[in-house]
Amino acid sequence: MTSGLPEMHASDAERDRVAEVLRDAVAEGRLDMEEFDQRLDAVYKARTHGELEPLVRDLPVPGTGGPVAAPVFSSSSGTPASWAGRVGGPATSRGGFAFWGGFGRKGTWTVGRRFTAFAMMGGGEIDLREARFEDRDTVIRCFTVMGGIGITVPPGLDVNVKGVGFLGGFGDLTTQSSEPVAPDSPRVTITGFALLGGVGVERKITRAEKQRLKEARKQEKLAKKAEAARKELG
What angle do CA 181, 2, 57 make, to 5 degrees? Predict the structure, then answer.
């Protein structure tokens, strides 16, 4: 497993993904509790990708006996360096329902290959930025009646929006992003129908990634100032 970014600072979301791999390994009998405790302690002390990688290098993708697990480390653009570690394993949710209320699917969860969401006089939130995918081809069907569903996708994810709105809207804001689709990205089709309501799809990076990028830009500016000062003194 190689992220190509061993010295880049790890985000809280990346530490949580590594911890999830370790918890699955305990459940499958691949680690005993003593080794799990040692690795988990190291996860939350890790500062860089290079410190996280060895902790799961010998473990498979959760829920499978297949390829070595890979935390989804991010590039400077906020696009996952590799999607391979986010495809496979059993779904943790195949749908959401809201009636005079709301539902949410966000954080680390596994999207079923067919996911159906319904909101009537209520609302729903589907966040795919930290999600895993049961299959490389995923269909998300959204139906609203006097309600709304918001779907947030990460940069680089291959998304095709085909929904229809009647006296409502089925908005696709993903095309406003200049970020290219990653070649190994899962394919997500979002379809459905909005009546007197709306479904909105937009691309965003996570809050942790925003903070990391902000810090990276700050360090880059400091490095440039230091280099300019050295040249003046030289």
Answer: 125
- Taking the whole predicted model, whether its pTM rises above 0.85 is answered as no
pLDDT one-digit tens code per residue, 23-68 = 878 777 888 888 888 888 888 888 887 788 888 878 775 544 544 4
Our CA angle for 80, 84, 88, nearest 5°, is 125
3-state secondary structure 46-77: CCEHHHHHHHCCCCECCCCCCCECCCCCECCC
First to last CA, the chain: 43
Distance between CA 85 and CA 101 in Å, rounded? 34
110-168 tens-digit pLDDT: 999 999 999 999 999 999 998 999 999 999 999 999 999 999 998 888 999 998 988 88
